[in-house]
Amino acid sequence: MKTKKHAQWMRTAALLSALILTVTLTACKKEAAQPPKTPEPAPTEQTTPGQTTPPGQTTPQPGQSGQTPPGQTGQGGETAKPPEEAPIKIGQLQYTEIERTSVATAAKNAGVPTYYLPERGASDDKIDQMATSAKLLTLKYYKMTILESPEEIKPSGKVESKQEVKLRNGTGQWVTVDGKKTLYLKLDKTYIALSSDKLSEADLQTVAESLATLK
Fold it and tell me: Of the candidates 86, 93, 85, which has an alpha carbon nearest to the alpha carbon of residue 206?
């Protein structure tokens, strides 16, 4: 009896094991048949094509801080203006002993026995260069040029106009050549010509009236 019952129990156990195995294999097949789910990408902010602004920021519009409309300086909508030059002030000119000696030597080399230097001019003006040639002394200041010669100095170019002017130390003449005016005058035996792109006619006449020999 024990042997028969034992055999029945073994068959029942085998059937249960086979049933469990069948259920397990079926579940595995169903799970394998379903495609794996892929995680959805996190939402990202979109930008307009050509936009370089990082996500979360906006490009400043005209009128907002950080951007200036064309033709404005950034405040008040005012157009930028070029800096204006300070007005020229006429004052006393100073010469160092070295400058005086150099002018005297240059005048001698040019054959100008009596030469003159202006005592007044642009307050910050000084002699920049000196040049000599036969019977001609050229003194180039930063704001004007003075020519001196024992012979008459004639304009180089076609004369467009002439205008006589009375000076405190004599009579001068404004001569226009190629749109540029030069003041000519004679002091004793020396002919002088003054020109400037910086000084006005009135200022240059003041310079001419202050011409004096060195003492």
Answer: 93
> How far is CA 20 from its chain centroid?
91
Tokens 């930028």 label which residue?
Answer: 80
How far, in Å, CA of 185 to CA of 168, rounded? Answer: 12
Rounded Cα gap, residues 62 and 95, in angstroms = 57
Q: What is the pTM of this model?
A: 0.62
Q: Express each pLDDT in 159-173 by its tens digit.
A: 999 999 999 999 999
Interatomic CA distance for residues 158 and 176, integer angstroms:
9
Longest CA–CA span in the chain (Å) reads 167
Residue 120: beta bridge partners?
A: 92
Phi, psi of 19 (to 5 degrees): -65, -45
> To 5 degrees, how large is the angle CA 186–CA 173–CA 125?
75
Does 38 score more than 60 pLDDT? no
